[in-house]
Specification:
Layout: E1 3-6, H1 10-21, E2 29-32, H2 36-46, E3 49-50, H3 53-59, E4 62-65, H4 69-79, E5 88-91, H5 98-103, E6 110-115, E7 125-131, H6 137-147, E8 151-155, H7 161-169, H8 171-188, H9 193-214, H10 218-225, H11 231-241, H12 244-263
Parallel strand pairs: 1-2, 1-4, 2-3, 4-5, 5-6, 7-8
Antiparallel strand pairs: 6-7
This protein binds 1,4-dihydronicotinamide adenine dinucleotide and (2S)-3,4-dihydro-2H-pyrrole-2-carboxylic acid.
1,4-dihydronicotinamide adenine dinucleotide (NAI) binds near residues 34, 68 and 69.
Length: about 270
């Protein structure tokens, strides 16, 4: 069973690393990558064979589409003649619908849509997967199998993928922005940048572990930190006054809307 990854940038590499870590031999994985220097880097790092898009599709049973959303149409046009019924195409491009992909491929090609996120690089990814019109349980299972060593996955109806993109696809960026802001605030309070970074990174990591391991609702965990009349209450009051919760609502609606716009081919 050969898997081809078309477009091996940030997300493509996370998948490639995960697939290899999951035990699939490198001889069963092909890459197609437009930038020659990137292709050379991938071969050096993973020993992977890099071929052109059409050859990758010709030789693969399963094809992962990991180019930017606006490159998906041109790449599909380039490979359509090499695709055949029985193949599975898994698209990871934000906003691109399964019907967009299906319309550009021969009938009988199964399409599955996935929204991953970058913690996949360290095996802590969150992916949501949806079937297209011609894909069944075996295709979803195949996609789940490929994603297994990159983290967790859930199945969602495709109409929820724009919301998923706003929550978990883009989500790591919100967390990293919080990390940046807390580090800078620590520096303002007189901590060295090194100390502030250590404090913030471990606080975020520890808080995430606490959420996961206790299974407690975040409200309960937040209340446990917030002593009556104490320091946390003083800080949270400022965040509430700044409109943090409303900001998240507005921000995630903007991400959801941008995902919808990408699906109608709106340019960058
Ligand atoms: N980076 C992220 O956090 C996430 C990205 N995605 C999706 O993953 C896809 C890829 O995103 P990134 O990896 O961040 O972008 P990227 O720009 O790092 O990677 C895209 C790769 O595709 C290559 N490429 C471009 N045109 C090509 C062509 N015609 N043939 C072969 N290779 C080609 C580029 O050289 C590049 O290496 C996007 O559709 C994005 O929506 C989804 C969820 C999260
Ligand atoms: O920003 C983007 O469009 C992609 C999709 C989700 C995360 N990164």
């Amino acid at each position: 069973m050969t898997v081809a990854i078309l477009g091996v940038g940030v997300m493509g590499e996370a998948l490639l690393a995960g697939i290899l870590q999951g035990g699939r031999p490198v001889s069963e994985v092909l890459a197609a990558e437009k930038r020659p220097e990137r292709a050379a880097e991938l071969t050096e790092r993973y020993g992977i064979e890099v071929v052109d898009n059409a050859e990758a599709v010709k030789r693969a049973d399963t094809v992962l589409l990991v180019v930017k959303p606006y490159d998906v149409g041109p790449v599909l046009d380039e490979v359509a003649a090499s695709a055949r019924p029985g193949q599975l195409f898994v698209s990871l491009a934000a906003g691109i619908t399964t019907s967009f992909v299906e319309a550009r491929l021969p009938g009988g090609v199964a399409v599955v849509r996935v929204m991953p996120n970058t913690p996949a690089l360290v095996g802590e990814g969150m992916a949501a997967i949806s079937p297209g019109s011609f894909s069944g349980d075996e295709h979803l299972a195949e996609a789940e199998d490929l994603l297994r060593s990159t983290g967790r996955s859930v199945r969602v109806p495709e109409k929820q993928q724009d919301a998923v993109t706003a929550v978990s696809g883009s989500g790591p960026a919100y967390v990293f922005m919080v990390a940046e802001a807390m580090i800078e605030a620590g520096v303002h309070l007189g901590l060295t940048r090194v100390t502030a970074t250590e404090l913030v990174v471990q606080t975020l990591t520890g808080s995430a572990a606490l959420l996961r391991e206790t299974g407690e609702h975040p409200t309960v965990l937040r209340e446990r930190v917030t002593s009556p009349g104490g320091t946390t209450a003083a800080a949270l009051r400022k965040l509430e006054e700044g409109g943090l919760r409303a900001d998240f609502l507005v921000a995630l609606e903007a991400a959801r809307d941008r995902s919808r716009a990408l699906s109608s081919g709106e340019p960058v």
